[in-house]
């Protein structure tokens, strides 16, 4: 289940903590960020670790990822050696990210930063999936079911939210949607839920914290590290925030049992 706690470096893939660069957003000014980020468990863990601790765990995290990479390689070689590579679709994906000092956070928690919600998704099948094709389209793990069902010739129920990703794979389309909705409802170590509703478009990300009334808005084109919270900008938020708010309102209205109330 790596990379995950308990953190243990892979013995065949060591990294020297001194050689691991800290994230640029470690210097993020949290004064404009929602209260859960300033006071929550991930920030407290960041403060407790200090730079030496962060480097240690980041080196360990890298080592664990290298171990996964090596073992995925073993799986691929086995498929090739047994002649099953051309009738097997391999999908590599993760469930979520992990903060390693970004935005002064360690672990995961109440936030929708790219480091937490933007995950790898790799499809592999020789002769079917074009090698080296990269897509920057907005996709979700909800899309995996209809994608696999489509490859198997199975029907997909009408109430499934995901989309078949194959048009992105075969190159017939470069985009499937112009927005993705995000939600967070896990209870932290205090037992209190910190719900978040959000939306990401090709350019912007917006997050709403219903419990505190706080908001975040980032221009992912000019601020990919999500440092400048435009929702509380000194000159006032940009006009685009109203469109993002409306998108989240429409999304919230479709949820039968609102988890944030």
Detailed description of the structure:
The chain folds into 3 domains: 98 residues, no CATH class; 33 residues, no CATH class; 78 residues, 2-Layer Sandwich (Arylsulfatase, C-terminal domain). It is globular, with a radius of gyration of 20 Å. The chain contains 6 helices and 8 strands. The chain is α+β, with helices and mostly antiparallel strands and 261 residues long. The mean pLDDT is 94. The protein has a 4-stranded antiparallel beta sheet with strand order 5-6-7-8, covered by helices on one side. Strands 1-4 form a two-stranded antiparallel ribbon. A two-stranded antiparallel ribbon has the order 2-3.
List the helices and strands and how they pair.
Elements: H1 35-39, H2 41-81, E1 90-93, E2 99-100, E3 106-107, H3 114-117, E4 121-124, H4 144-152, H5 166-169, E5 179-184, E6 196-201, E7 204-209, E8 214-219, H6 240-253
Antiparallel strand pairs: 1-4, 2-3, 5-6, 6-7, 7-8
List the main descriptive attributes of the protein structure presented here.
261 residues; alpha+beta; Arylsulfatase, C-terminal domain; 3 domains; two-stranded antiparallel ribbon; 8 strands; 14% strand; globular
